[in-house]
Design a protein that fits this description.
Elements (H helix, E strand, L loop, with lengths): L5 E5 L6 H15 L4 E5 L12 E2 L1 H6 L5 E4 L4 H11 L3 E5 L12 H8 L1 H4 L2 E6 L15 E4 L16 H13 L7 E4 L1
Parallel strand pairs: 1-6, 1-7, 2-4, 2-5, 3-4, 5-6
Antiparallel strand pairs: 7-8
Helix pairs in contact: 3-4
Length: 186
C-alpha cells in the first residue's frame, strides 16, 4: 500500500535536517528498491556530493530507479519536468526556502495535489515557519520539527492543528539536545 505523503521538515540551519533526511532516504532506498529517490538540490549541498547528479535529458529517460539529485537555475522548469515525468518516487526539495516562495506556483501546486496519482512522496525542507507558503499547510501530512528561530505563532491562522504543533515546537525548543526533533502527523 502506498501512502504518498507530503512531509515538511522545519528547522534552523545546523539543526540536523539534512543529516536526518539522508538517514531516512537511505532507509527508504533499502526498504523500497522499486522506488526512485530524486533530490532537488539547487545549492549543490555538500551533504549530497556522493549522490549522482542527473541532467535534464537523463530525467526524461529515467526509469525511476536509484537515488539521484538534480540541479539547475530554473526551478519552475525542474518542477514541471518532475510533475510530467517522475512517478513512483520519493522527491526531496532540499532548502525549499530558496525557491518555493510565499505563494505556490502552479507547477508546485500540481506536484503536491497529484502526488497520489503519480505515486510520489514529497519532502520539503524549510528553515522556519515564516518561510513556508501558507497554502502548503493544507497538504502537509507530516511535519518534522527541529529547533527553529521563530515558532508557529506566525502561521497560527494557517494551521488547523495549531495547538498540537505549538506544543510540539515548545518541547523541541526546550530540549537540551540541539538535534532533537519531533514528528507530527497532521
Amino acid at each position: 500500500m502506498r501512502i504518498n505523503k507530503v512531509t515538511c521538515l522545519v528547522g534552523k540551519r545546523g539543526s540536523g535536517k539534512t543529516t536526518y533526511l539522508i538517514k531516512i532516504l537511505t532507509e527508504l532506498a533499502l526498504h523500497h528498491p522499486d522506488r526512485g529517490i530524486l533530490i532537488v538540490d539547487m545549492i549543490q549541498n555538500q551533504a549530497y556530493k556522493d549522490i549522482p547528479l542527473m541532467d535534464f535529458d537523463m530525467l526524461d529517460r529515467w526509469t525511476g530507479k536509484g537515488m539521484y539529485r538534480i540541479s539547475g537555475e530554473n526551478i519552475e522548469e525542474i518542477v514541471a519536468l518532475i510533475t510530467g515525468k517522475v512517478r513512483n518516487c520519493f522527491v526531496v526539495f532540499e532548502d525549499s526556502t530558496r525557491f518555493i516562495l510565499k505563494v505556490l506556483s502552479r507547477n508546485v501546486r500540481k506536484l503536491i495535489v497529484d502526488s497520489k496519482q503519480t505515486n510520489n512522496d514529497i519532502f520539503f525542507v524549510y528553515h522556519g515557519f515564516r518561510l513556508i507558503p501558507p497554502e502548503m499547510f493544507q497538504w502537509i501530512d507530516n511535519l518534522v520539527l527541529f529547533k527553529t528561530k521563530g515558532g508557529p505563532d506566525y502561521r497560527r491562522d494557517d494551521l488547523e492543528d495549531f495547538e498540537l504543533i505549538n506544543e510540539a515546537w515548545i518541547k523541541v525548543q526546550r530540549h537540551p539536545d540541539q538535534y532533537y526533533k519531533q514528528t507530527i502527523t497532521l
